[in-house]
Amino acid sequence: MFNTEAFMTVLLALPFIGFAQQPSDSISLRKVLDEVNVNALRANEKTPMTFTNISKSEIEKGNLGQDLPYLISLTPSVVTTSDAGAGVGYTGFRIRGADPTRINVTVNGIPLNDSESQGVWWVNMPDFSSSIENIQIQRGVGTSTNGAAAFGASVNLKTDGLNKKAYAITNNSVGSFSTLKNNIEFGTGLLNDNFVFDGRLSKISSDGYIDRATSNLKSLYLQGTYFGANSVLKGIVFSGHERTYQAWNGVPLNYLDSNRTFNSYTYENEVDNYGQTHYQLHYSKQMRNKTNFNLAWHYTHGEGYYEQEKLGEDLTDYGINNITLTNDTISATDLIRRKWLNNDFGGFIYSLNHKMGSIDLTIGGAINRYSGQHYGNVIWAQYASNADYNHQYYWNKAEKLDHNIYGKANYAYSDATNIYVDLQRRRIDYIFEGLDVEGSSAEQEINLAFFNPKFGFYHALNNNQSLYASFGVANKEPNRSDYIESTPESRPTHETLYDTEIGYKKTGNKIIFGANLYFMNYKNQLVMTGKLNDVGERTHVNVTESFRKGIEIEGTYKLTGKLTWAANMTLSENKITTPFIEHIDNWDTWGTEEVSYENTDLAFSPNVIWASQFNYKLGNNTSIDFSSKYIGKHFIDNTSSENRMLEGYLVNNLRLSYQCDSKVFKTSKLTLQINNLLNNEYVSNGWVYRFISDGWDPRGSNHYVNPDNERGYNMAGYYPQATRNYLLGLTFGF
């Protein structure tokens, strides 16, 4: 077995074992050292991977309070959604049909995905976009990264870099649905040629497009950096707290035309209340002109709950004895519960970058440990005599050790050709409380080891044209619910992705063009089928063969000196090739029925996605952007049934920006953004539960039930997005 601890000891010792230092205090060196932990995971222009870079100026253009998914929505193969309908609160995105649990996200090279659910919740990081220097999105397997497997894409965020001059900026936005954003950003500039301090305080609130889908979000970001002659030491703290009224159920199908802002939650405190604080300490050292060493320590603490009103609950489900009244015994009651998560995540990442001759070599990895407490309290029960009622009805703890090591070599075979090799080993040790073979709760342990190789080549045809091709393998473990809601006998196995990418790029003074063919072949991909396992739970089921394949085209054309057009398009096919068996509950027989499908579409995977943006410079100070995004029809389950389909939609946005000339302010800008300019009514997301009930029509007792044209009923919720709305932003800077 590979001895990770011994390897780390060697790496930690490297800066002190005799490398000849090359003194330099140049700004360029400091910028390089400030970015090396990020660069170890990123692709560059000669890396044979499919990626898109987003600069700070691009981020700032539309950063008026909406979450990060909306700021990257015009990049290729991206589909965004918002529970509240307006881009504030619970938001998310998919890339090439891959959901957030399959998209690896890192901040300065440090994993952001939750260790158990594997998702990312941007609501916990309000206004984080204001502290991002740049973003790289790699589609497909991409280069080796830290944390969760990239099973469709990876998103690498780099926070603010070196600001040489002191500054203070305030960004303020107001918009539809009582949306309000206020922040202040500040920095000292370079002090004594060695120190820099930066910070941000933010507050965002919104009523949401959906009824009662309010958000109250607060955050801060602080960083201090020391620049030595050959080293950089940077400490970062960022924290967010959210209180969001739940809109998780979506809107019933029958309400989309008449009451599309409907929210089934009516209890006044049906909220998600969560806070999370991240600490990072980065050290980078230039040991030779051709060698950098980088080490980062990190720790994150998160704690919070979501509160629910539950009606007519069986007391035995909560471990509560019957409540005895004078003339009656109560076995079921209305109650209010809170489900808590209290978690800690920490560890360190490292990388050594060295250039030897024609080879750029990177060796790196991470060791991370997660500890999460999951528990629930009943804080009120009807007829309970204690006014301070607080009954804990479950508690469990999970621990996960995730460590990986990778080696990357980019070999310049000739002036025009590079060969790329990237090898990663990842190991997971997960201890949790789950179900044993008899269905009772017991502590269990999972140990997995994955080998993830990637290979590719890059070839420059001439000064402005190039080709690349790559092949990569990724392995991914099931998530928390797949483990805890199954026994070792019914538990799904890990899944594997084989990804092939072939691309062409052309750059010129007026035209930038790129095309990429991809084929993502999945073995044992985990999908929902409705099947109940041996303890009566629905978890993901492995399907033997499935794939995503397509072409991504993107380009920029400078039509005139003032008018630029940028556009991209994805045409794809996303299929389960082995027979797909849907399991449908039969409420009459208390059993399930099976329906077999051939060559069905993977859920939430549109075959057509395109985006377009025209930018017109109206003078030196005024800019106009007109953007469009089209998402083709796609399905909310894996049956390709039009009864469970989201219609395609086109959304157009208009943004006007005016840079004000001022003797008082160093920066002053006014921005008006009109979203969904043509006032389209569309739905971006949904969920469905299918069942059979021939003996009873349940539509009268549940808003979400509607008949299925094939047989039975669909219980489904849909997430309509806001009609025409606006955001008005004002920025002042000193």
What's the topology here?
Blueprint: H1 4-13, H2 27-39, E1 50-55, H3 56-61, H4 68-71, E2 78-82, E3 91-95, E4 103-107, E5 110-111, E6 132-139, E7 153-159, E8 167-175, E9 179-187, E10 195-206, E11 215-227, E12 231-245, E13 271-288, E14 291-314, E15 323-324, E16 329-330, E17 332-356, E18 359-381, E19 391-412, E20 417-435, E21 441-462, E22 465-476, H5 480-484, E23 495-507, E24 511-527, E25 541-558, E26 563-576, E27 580-586, E28 591-597, E29 600-601, E30 608-618, E31 622-631, E32 634-635, E33 645-646, E34 649-659, E35 667-675, E36 683-692, E37 705-707, E38 713-720, E39 725-733
Parallel strand pairs: 4-7, 27-36
Antiparallel strand pairs: 1-6, 2-3, 4-5, 6-7, 8-9, 8-39, 9-10, 10-11, 11-12, 12-13, 13-14, 14-17, 15-16, 17-18, 18-19, 19-20, 20-21, 21-22, 22-23, 23-24, 24-25, 25-26, 26-29, 26-30, 27-28, 30-31, 31-34, 32-33, 34-35, 35-39, 36-38, 37-38
Describe this structure in words.
The relative contact order is 0.12. Strand 10 and strand 11 (215-227) form a beta hairpin. The N and C termini lie far apart (56 Å). It is globular and about 80 Å long. It has one domain (4-733): TonB-dependent receptor, beta-barrel domain (Maltoporin, Chain A). The chain is mostly beta strands and 734 residues long. The strands form 6 sheets. It has a 22-stranded antiparallel beta barrel.
Short key terms for the protein model shown above:
single chain; 734 residues; mainly beta; Maltoporin, Chain A; 22-stranded antiparallel beta barrel; five-stranded mixed β-sheet; 5 helices; globular
Number of E strands: 39
Distance between the termini: 56 Å
- Tell me the major beta sheet: 22 strands, antiparallel, barrel
Arithmetic mean pLDDT: 92
What percent strand?
over 45%
**CATH level-4 homologous superfamily:** TonB-dependent receptor, beta-barrel domain
Top CATH class: Mainly Beta
CATH topology: Maltoporin, Chain A
Provide the domain count: 1
The CATH architecture is: Beta Barrel
Determine the structural class based on helices, strands and strand pairing: mainly beta
Report low-confidence residues grouped into runs of 5 or more: 4-25
**What's the shape?**
globular
CA-atom Rg in angstroms: 26 Å
Total count of helical runs of at least 4 residues: 5
